[in-house]
Write a structure and sequence with these properties.
With 217 residues, the protein is α/β, with parallel strands linked by helices. The chain has helices spanning 10-16, 29-34, 41-51, 68-79, 93-104, 117-126, 135-140, 145-159, 173-181, 191-196, 201-214; strands spanning 2-6, 24-26, 58-62, 85-90, 109-114, 130-133, 164-165, 167-170, 186-189. Helix 4 crosses helix 5 (93-104) and helix 6 (117-126) packs parallel to helix 8 (145-159). It is globular, with a radius of gyration of 18 Å. The structure holds erythose-4-phosphate.
C-alpha cells in the first residue's frame, strides 16, 4: 500500500507526515497556487528539500511548460533536487514526448490528469512508473468513477506491469476504503481526507472514555 499526501502546505506536512502513514507527497501547480506558492524552481527547490526532511520515500512534483522542451527542462530540474523525486507530467502529446526523454535521463515519472481508460494504455506503453486518474473529477463529469478505475486496473494487469495506478482526486475516506477493497493500492489525498481517517465518532468517544477511566473520573 502506498499513500501520498496531496498538498504543499507545510503545516499539513508537519501534522501528517510524522504519522508514518504516508509513502510520500504529491503536488501540482494548482496545489502550489492554493498554498500561495509560485511554480518556479527557485521556490520549489527549498520547499521540497524541507519536505524531504520528513520520512518520505518519494515526492512527486509536476513539471510545467506548454512545449515539450520546457516540460523536460523543468522536469530535469525537479529530478535534480533529490533521488526521491518523481516527476508528474500531464498526459498530453507533448507530455508523452517529455516522459520519453525524462526516462532516457533515468527520471521516474507519473502521467497525470487522467480521465479515460485508454489513457492507462498510453501510460503503460510509455512505461511510466505511475498513472494518476482523477477519481473525484471523473465522478463530477457524470461517469461511473469506480467502473473507470476498475477498467484501468484491468488494462494495467494485462498491459502494464511496470505502471502503478495512483488514484488521485479522492475526497472521501469511504471511497479510499472501497477502492482499496476492490484491489487498488496507491492513492493520493488531501489533508481533509486524512482528517476523515481519524473522525469516526465511536472511536473518538471510546478514546475519550479510556482517558476518563485512566484519570479515575
Ligand atoms: C492530483 O494531482 C490532484 O491535485 C487532485 O487529486 C485533484 O483533486 P480535486 O479534484 O479534489 O481537486
Amino acid at each position: 500500500l502506498r499513500l501520498f499526501l496531496d498538498t504543499a502546505d507545510r503545516d499539513a506536512w508537519s501534522r501528517w507526515l510524522p504519522t508514518g502513514l504516508f509513502h510520500g507527497v504529491t503536488t501540482n501547480p494548482t496545489i502550489l497556487a492554493r498554498s500561495g506558492l509560485s511554480c518556479t524552481i527557485e521556490t520549489l527547490t527549498p520547499l521540497l528539500r524541507r519536505c524531504l526532511d520528513y520520512p518520505v520515500a518519494e515526492i512527486q512534483a509536476q513539471c510545467w511548460g506548454t512545449e515539450t522542451d520546457a516540460l523536460i527542462e523543468t522536469g530535469l530540474a525537479l529530478a535534480a533536487i533529490d533521488p526521491r523525486m518523481v516527476v508528474k507530467v500531464p498526459i498530453t502529446e507533448n507530455g508523452i514526448r517529455a516522459v520519453a526523454r525524462l526516462h532516457a535521463h533515468g527520471v521516474r515519472t507519473t502521467l497525470t490528469a487522467v480521465y479515460a481508460v485508454h489513457q492507462a494504455v498510453t501510460a503503460a506503453a510509455a512505461g511510466s512508473d505511475y498513472v494518476a486518474p482523477y477519481f473525484g473529477r471523473i465522478g463530477d463529469s457524470g461517469r461511473d468513477a469506480f467502473a473507470t478505475i476498475d477498467a484501468m486496473r484491468a488494462v494495467l494487469r494485462h498491459a502494464g506491469d511496470r505502471t502503478r495506478l495512483l488514484v488521485a482526486s479522492l475526497r472521501q475516506a469511504d471511497d479510499l476504503a472501497a477502492l482499496c477493497a476492490a484491489g487498488c493500492d496507491t492513492f493520493t489525498f488531501s489533508p481533509a481526507v486524512a482528517e476523515q481517517l481519524f473522525a469516526d465518532p465511536q472511536t473518538v468517544e471510546a478514546a475519550a472514555t479510556f482517558e476518563r477511566m485512566a484519570a479515575g473520573l
